[in-house]
Write the structure tokens for this entry.
Amino acid sequence: MRDPALEAAFVRAQKGIGNKRIDFYDLEKRRNFHVNLLQFEPGEKILHHDHPGMTGVLLCATGALSTDNYTLLGRRKETGSFLLKQSASLVLEKGMVSSLTSKEGNIHHVEARVLTQVVDIFAPPYDRQRVAKSSWFNVDAEPFEGRADIFEATIR
């Protein structure tokens, strides 16, 4: 079955190519969930951020998107920084998904390798309160104290 909203978003997305920004197109927004089409040009990225109290799924519709997910382990008393456990590091290609829950893999970043479109689904949807609770992170590139999957992070 064809989805008119999705088809219209793909048509609008074609007009956004070359505008040097990530494009967001609403597909469906209800009280319990929100679905968007996101379009990335090569190298465009969304830096490390979280989705407090939300569950999300990214479905790669076209292209290729790198994504790393982290689970918050806790805050270090001595420095105030956070320790994160890397729970996934993927290159999503057409038909592949990445997910996060309110407790697992909730901090993530994404970066397009080529022109890429993804369907982004969140439940519950963003609202003012969830936006206000969201945080952006600087995550160290090197693992914490030599541990392969633990990283230190600070709030941006």
